Every structure is written in C-alpha cells, then in structure tokens.
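quick one
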Amino acid sequence: MSIKLRLYRKKRDFAKTPEPYGKTMAKTKAATKKTSKPKALIFVVQKHDATRLHYDVRLEIGNVLVSWAVPKGPPRKTGVKRLAIMTEDHPMEYGTFEGIIPEGEYGAGTVEIWDSGTFYNIKEKDGKIVPLKTCLKEGQIEVYLEGTKLKGPYALVKTSFGDKDNQWLMLKTKAKK
Ligand code: MN
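structure w/ manganese (II) ion:
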C-alpha cells in the first residue's frame, strides 16, 4: 500500500464519500523506465465549495497528485502571488473527480473541475532540469501549465511564514526567453 495515500484514506470514509479510494501503486515497467524526453504530466484545478470556497491545485509528481488549497484561486496575471496551503497527496484518479462530498464528511461540499491539462517541469539548475521530487523537497517548483484557463509558466514556492510547515505561494512567472 502506498504510504503517500495513507493520510488521504485516513481522512475519508469511502462508504460515504463518492471520492476515489485510489489504486494501490505497484510500479509498472512504464513508470520505472527512464526516458530522456520531457514528460507531459497531468494537473487539475478543482473548485471546491466547502466550508470555505477554495481551489485545489494538484500536480502529478511521483504517481500521486501533490495538492495545494488556494483560497483565492490560481493567479491569472504575471506577478500575482496567491497563498497555497499544501494538503495531503491525492490519488491519480482524483484528477477526473467531480461530485458532492456529503455533509459531515471530510471536505463536505461540491467539487468541480475548474481547469485541467498537462504540465512540464521547467526548473533548471546548471542547465539541467531538476527532478520534480527534488523541487518538492526544496520547496521550489517551476512548471509550464498547458490547461484551458491556466497557460504558461508558474511557480510554487514554499515560504517560511509563521510556524506552519505547509504554506506556499503560487505565482505566475514571466516566460523565459
Ligand atoms: Mn479542497
């Protein structure tokens, strides 16, 4: 069983919520095969009308959807920064989930897909792409989003605000020449 999804599953009662449980993630040959081509990964932004309306930004990293709750929604203009609170990893199947989480359950409210598409890792160091898992660990993610609403380069940067360990900023960055 995936360690990554343990928290996701622990928070939910799958007899009551329509959210996906998520497959167990035995590594497939395709997933372990090394390729030099940049890989198009998937992203989704879900509008989540819970206790407080927010937008959940999810990026495919290491076969799960690494997730942030963005209260004001992802920025559309270059230079605009938005607070992004990191939440638990979600299963890949969550990328197509829409539905109503019942009253009394974790995250109760309506979930709808606000935008989705593919993205590329564009974080470079010394002319080389930095692996996404390293970017995540270092709190410095740079991606190029190819969605319907969100297009172009974005950054997710971990902050050291306050005493919490989950506060990031999401910003739309300038295209590199
Ligand atoms: Mn949410």
